[in-house]
Design brief:
Layout (H helix, E strand, L loop, with lengths): L1 H4 L9 H7 L20 H12 L26 E11 L5 E8 L9 E7 L5 E8 L7 E9 L15 E8 L4 E8 L7 E2 L13 E9 L4 E8 L4 E7 L6 E7 L8 E9 L15 E8 L9 E9 L4 E3 L14 E5 L10 E5 L16 E2 L6 E8 L3 E8 L6 E11 L2 E7 L6 E9 L10 E8 L5 E7 L4 E5 L14 E5 L8 E8 L2 E6 L4 E6 L6 E9 L6 E9 L14
Parallel strand pairs: 1-19
Antiparallel strand pairs: 1-2, 2-3, 3-4, 5-6, 6-7, 7-8, 9-10, 10-11, 11-12, 13-14, 14-15, 15-16, 17-18, 18-20, 20-21, 22-33, 23-32, 24-29, 24-33, 25-26, 25-32, 26-27, 27-28, 29-30, 30-31
The structure holds 2-acetamido-2-deoxy-beta-D-glucopyranose (NAG) (10 copies).
């Protein structure tokens, strides 16, 4: 098993091998799934998966969310390996559905299924049985999306308005084709359409269909990636079955080695400070994940603000824009079924193909978490230009008690305050105001989260004079890998009104940071050998009129404390 997955093209130690193999090995969004990573017959895997599934009928549940690294407010799979979010949608009853690339029988990618979880608030997830199985032992269900066919355009739903259609890539050694499957029970179980595939262009590198409904033209619109041609193909359909190629978007922005997991989404434009909607903007975002070949190594997601007229997407410019300034935000997907007056909501895979299959969470029987759900909109300010603003979706369902609240002028701070919470997860808000006039060159903010005995720490900070923010996971020792780089930074300026803010969600082995209310954000996994138990925050050299306000709150675990749950995966 390890020797086969050792041929994993993105593993640094095998990079030279990889170059030789690049032309031979199918590189998919689900990555190495076409290689039988188990080294055993898929039949066996399938049997195991099916057996596991019957846990829904009474065999003890297999999930256990108690490990040192197990995020408590982020979604992670009950066990085994997870990658891309798939089929995200909100149904008519207000339930959010998260499907995900899932290997139910291994801790590395392979044997891809669609795992499934549901939630009422995007934080408290209930694990559901696997939703989509590969139809044959030598195929895999790769990434894709889901829609609610409320008008029965497909004809699959003679008696209901809540029918769900999943659109996904079926991968095999000979091709990647686009298939559909429909669900009469609100997205819990699916039937493959007998007219599959719905798109077959005789390619082994053609995947990750994402479908939206385009109101103006009353058509379904699909974006799907010709991964190694750097082409996002746009198809339209009246019924989700017959698809017509209407345009290609190609060779713009960052190319890397492959393009994957495209998303096309209408995006409101707002004023960042007031949050007010700027009317009549009719903007879209086309997001494209790139792997390998991201600027920081491995995988990353870029996006293009632009316009879409029903057939053609036109980017506003050719600037490369990334969703994240760290390394662990990939294959993000936007929910279908979010009402027009709500901002689009997205969830991304919080890992990087460089080390996703190596991280030490395997010792707890699982690998990979999702980002927190994000609320998104576009802004266009003189200092940032067009930017996709991304903030945690309403955290109230998980916010716990206030641990620290403090405000000071100019220099000051908090020294080793306890962040011991039941969950091991905290939310931090920092707001600095009064940053007007000239700022001394030494003005800075530093935040250090430390372990109690092992002298490990996670730190971040901001220089108010050179406007650089950094996030450093280098002083954690639970995981060593040359690709697991440490220190990420970005440029961000105080706002015109003299304020600068940051917030962070710190959740055992993952931190997400949001600067200036989400104008910049970072997602980073980290592995300290002990829990982080204290925090120090200090400012130095700030002008005398500056005020720093800090609020630290506990986050409450969304998982039950024991390893005994109702999960049936
Ligand atoms: C459903 O039909 C209505 C009325 O024709 C139309 O306005 C709407 O866009 C359609 N929506 C979908 C998802 O088919
Ligand atoms: C849905 O489509 C099927 C197939 O075209 C048709 O038989 C059925 O009557 C339709 N149902 C509704 C409510 O439109
Ligand atoms: C709707 O029709 C489908 C297909 O005929 C059937 O499988 C399903 O049970 C029906 N659902 C309801 C709620 O009647
Ligand atoms: C599909 O592509 C393969 C490899 O490029 C080629 O050998 C084969 O002839 C193609 N099949 C069709 C039906 O075009
Ligand atoms: C779109 O891109 C695909 C993949 O490279 C190519 O086969 C096709 O000819 C292109 N179509 C158009 C209209 O450019
Ligand atoms: C959309 O824009 C493209 C490129 O500018 C153009 O060729 C096409 O005709 C437009 N379609 C519509 C429906 O306006
Ligand atoms: C749950 O996982 C933790 C961490 O891996 C382990 O120590 C514990 O024994 C597990 N509990 C059960 C009930 O399996
Ligand atoms: C805070 O705690 C860490 C770890 O226990 C320790 O290394 C550091 O010196 C402490 N800092 C202060 C200011 O007490
Ligand atoms: C991390 O990056 C910041 C900003 O570039 C820099 O100031 C800091 O010294 C770096 N930290 C380490 C440990 O290299
Ligand atoms: C675990 O869950 C099962 C099924 O709900 C229940 O019967 C059993 O008592 C639970 N065990 C513990 C230790 O909580």
């Amino acid at each position: 098993m390890r020797s086969l997955s050792g041929l994993h093209p993105f593993h640094s130690r095998y990079w030279q091998w990889a170059n030789i193999l690049l032309g031979l090995v199918a590189l998919q969004c689900a990555l190495v799934a076409s290689i039988n990573v188990k080294g055993t017959a898929h039949e066996d895997d399938r049997t195991i998966a099916r057996t596991t599934l019957t846990a829904s009928s009474g065999i003890p549940a297999l999930d256990n969310y108690t490990g040192l690294y197990r995020p408590q407010i982020h979604f992670s799979p009950p066990q085994e390996f997870m990658n891309d979010p798939n089929g995200l949608h909100k149904d008519a009853k207000g339930t959010y559905h998260l499907y995900y690339q899932y290997n139910p029988t291994g801790l590395v990618a392979g044997n891809q299924h669609w795992g499934h979880a549901t939630s009422k608030d995007l934080y408290h997830w209930e694990n559901q049985p696997i939703a989509i199985y590969p139809p044959t032992s030598d195929s895999q269900v790769f990434s894709g999306s889901a829609v609610i066919d409320s008008n029965n355009t497909s004809g699959f739903f003679p008696n209901q308005t809540d029918g769900v259609v999943a659109i996904y890539t079926l991968n095999s050694a000979s091709a990647e084709v686009q298939e559909i499957a429909y669900s009469h029970d609100g997205g819990y179980s699916f039937t493959r359409y007998d007219g599959n595939p719905v798109i077959d262009v005789n390619s082994t590198q053609f995947r990750d269909p994402k479908v939206i409904w385009h109101e103006k033209t009353q058509r379904w619109v699909m974006v799907v990636s010709h991964a190694q041609d750097f082409v996002i193909a746009f198809y339209t359909s009246p019924d989700l079955k017959a698809w017509t190629l209407v345009s290609n978007f190609s060779h713009q922005g960052l190319l890397g080695s492959q393009w994957e997991c495209p998303n096309l989404v209408p995006m409101p434009v707002r004023d960042v400070a007031s949050g007010e909607l700027i009317e009549h903007q009719d903007m879209y975002v086309l997001a494209i994940s790139v792997n390998p070949g991201a600027p920081l190594g491995g995988s990353a997601t870029q996006y293009f603000p632009g316009t879409f007229n029903g057939t053609t997407f036109t980017a506003i410019d050719r600037t490369v824009r990334l969703t994240d300034f760290a390394k662990d935000n990939y294959a993000g997907q936007f929910f279908y079924g979010i009402l027009d007056d709500e901002d689009p909501i997205s969830i991304a895979w919080a890992s990087n193909w460089q080390y996703a299959e190596e991280v030490p969470t395997a010792q707890e029987g699982w690998r990979s978490a999702m980002s927190v759900p994000r609320r998104n909109f576009l802004a266009n300010t003189p200092s940032t230009g067009w930017v996709l603003v991304s903030r945690p979706h309403d955290l109230r369902p998980v916010l716990g008690q206030v641990l620290v609240e403090k405000e000071w002028r100019a220099e000051g701070g908090i020294s080793n305050a306890s962040i011991l919470t039941e969950s091991g997860a905290v939310h931090l808000n920092v707001a600095v105001s009064g940053l007007l006039g000239s700022i001394p060159a030494t003005s800075s903010l530093e935040i250090v989260l430390s372990t109690s005995d092992s002298q490990e720490s996670l730190s971040c900070g901001y220089s108010f004079s050179d406007n650089t923010f950094f996030l450093d996971r280098g002083n954690t020792r639970g995981f060593q890998d040359p690709t697991f780089t440490s220190n990420f930074s970005t440029s961000v300026f105080p706002r015109e009104d003299g304020t600068w803010t940051m917030s962070a969600v710190v959740d055992r082995s993952i931190i997400e940071v949001f600067l200036n209310e989400g104008v910049a954000s970072a997602t980073s996994v980290f592995f300290a050998t002990q829990p982080l138990t204290s925090i120090s925050i200090s400012t130095a050299g700030l002008p005398s009129g500056a005020t720093t306000k800090v609020e630290l709150r506990a986050l409450e675990s969304v998982w039950r404390a024991t390893g005994n749950d109702t999960a049936r995966v």
